[in-house]
């Protein structure tokens, strides 16, 4: 019996020594070579180029770290030049071994805020992951200022163990830029100098507030207006404007309106379902031959050029709309 106890104690001592030696070596390797611990690798290939553009597009990342139960622990900010090879972050020195949930936001500026469901700053030990909101900063239901691009990485689950592990973080752009122009087809004269006669709006069905899974959390209309509007400079061009919107969502109940409005009277001259235009220009396939879903197309494409061609004799009549080079004829004439 005593011999068995001796063997048992010896085995326990050996196992303890081996584990301790491994952990110490892991710490030593991490300090000397950064080859041990947990790394996050940021990737932005969810674009129409189908290649990683993280280095070229995203200047900063902000991490929001939660424990296994979803309780907020801390955040970490880094500029791209502070990342390893411009796209990888070492996180092992900030946390102990265990399970974590990590939300990543790229390009975060004062134009957006990360808060709890009531708009308060995240509170360590109190704020839960399901209560986190990533939202466009706005005072009311109309947005007419330019805001910077924003990327969101859906929350990932991470296990930190005594080894080297690399966890990819896939980012999706949550902002869009629309360049819109109004062209009179029966007018070949030069651009209209002087006051702008027409403006544009896009009315969205959700409130530009997203959860940690990047789904909309507030169902209310927001009107996006141009932050830059001027009289047209090309032949027949009546006006041109540039505006931003947040993420476009495809699905039942998500209706987007494109509006041409008379500046002088404020009256809408033309209203159309924006999503119908975007559906018409969606490629059927990805480059690898697999089907391209509509929502993925909307997330990949972030820059849009719309040219509304019209006649304004005896009233306003829209003839066609050119979207990113594709002409869509109205009144079911054809494409």
Summarize the SSE layout with pairings.
Layout: H1 2-33, E1 37-43, H2 54-57, E2 60-67, E3 72-79, E4 88-90, E5 98-106, E6 112-115, E7 133-136, E8 142-143, E9 151-160, E10 164-173, E11 175-184, E12 198-204, E13 209-210, E14 222-224, E15 228-231, E16 237-246, E17 257-262, E18 268-273, H3 274-281, H4 294-300, E19 303-311, E20 317-323, E21 326-329
Parallel strand pairs: 1-10, 8-14, 11-19
Antiparallel strand pairs: 1-4, 2-3, 2-5, 5-9, 6-7, 7-13, 9-10, 11-16, 12-14, 12-17, 15-16, 17-18, 19-20, 20-21
Description:
With 335 residues, this protein is α+β, with helices and mostly antiparallel strands. It folds into three domains: 1-32; 37-173, Immunoglobulin-like (Sandwich); 175-329, Sandwich (Immunoglobulin-like). It is 15% helix and 40% strand. The protein has four helices and 21 strands. The strands form four sheets. It has a seven-stranded mixed β-sheet with strand order 3-2-5-9-10-1-4. A six-stranded mixed β-sheet has the order 15-16-11-19-20-21, covered by helices on one side. The chain has a five-stranded mixed β-sheet with strand order 8-14-12-17-18. A hairpin with a 5-residue loop joins β15 and β16 (237-246). The protein starts with a helix and ends in a 6-residue tail after the last strand.
- Count of runs of 4 or more consecutive helical residues: 4
Strand line-up in the sheet with most strands = 3-2-5-9-10-1-4
CATH class of the largest domain: Mainly Beta
Give the tally of structural domains: 3
Strand residues, percent: 35-45%
The main β sheet shows up as: 7 strands, mixed
What is the β-strand count? 21
Oligomer class: single chain
The CATH architecture classification of the largest domain is Sandwich
At CATH level 3, the topology of the largest domain is Immunoglobulin-like
Task: Note poorly predicted spans.
Answer: 13-33
Distance between the termini: 90 Å
Element order, helices and strands? HEHEEEEEEEEEEEEEEEEEHHEEE
The secondary-structure class comes to alpha+beta
User: Rg from C-alpha positions?
Assistant: 26 Å
Gross morphology: elongated
């Amino acid at each position: 019996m005593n011999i068995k106890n001796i063997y048992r104690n010896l085995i326990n001592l050996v196992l303890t020594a081996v584990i301790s030696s491994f952990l110490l070596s892991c710490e030593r390797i991490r300090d000397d070579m950064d080859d041990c611990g947990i790394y996050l690798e940021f990737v932005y290939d969810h674009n129409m180029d189908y290649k990683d553009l993280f280095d070229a597009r995203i200047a900063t990342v902000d991490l929001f770290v939660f424990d296994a139960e979803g309780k907020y622990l801390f955040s970490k900010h880094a500029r791209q030049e502070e990342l390893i090879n411009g796209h990888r972050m070492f996180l092992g020195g900030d946390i102990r071994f265990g399970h974590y949930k990590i939300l990543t936001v790229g390009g975060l500026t004062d134009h957006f805020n990360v808060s709890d469901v009531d708009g308060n700053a995240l509170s360590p030990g109190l704020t839960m992951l399901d209560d986190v909101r990533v939202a466009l900063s706005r005072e009311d239901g109309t947005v007419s200022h330019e805001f910077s691009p924003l990327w969101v990485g859906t929350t990932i689950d991470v296990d930190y163990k005594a080894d080297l592990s690399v966890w990819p973080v896939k980012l999706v752009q949550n902002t869009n830029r629309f360049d819109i122009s109004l062209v009179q087809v029966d007018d070949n004269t030069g651009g209209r100098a002087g006051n702008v006669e027409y403006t544009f709006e896009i009315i969205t069905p959700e409130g530009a507030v997203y959860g940690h899974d990047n789904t909309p959390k507030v169902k209310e209309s927001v009107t996006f207006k141009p932050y830059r509007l001027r009289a047209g400079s090309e032949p027949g061009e009546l006006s041109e404007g540039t505006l931003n919107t947040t993420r476009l969502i495809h699905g039942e109940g998500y209706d987007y309106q494109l509006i041409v409005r008379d500046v002088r009277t404020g009256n809408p001259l033309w209203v159309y379902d924006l999503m119908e235009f975007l559906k018409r220009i969606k490629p059927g396939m990805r480059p690898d031959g697999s089907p391209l879903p509509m929502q993925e197309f909307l997330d990949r494409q972030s820059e849009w050029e719309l040219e509304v061609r019209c006649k304004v004799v005896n009233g306003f009549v829209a003839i066609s709309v050119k979207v990113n080079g594709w002409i869509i004829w109205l009144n079911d004439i054809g494409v």
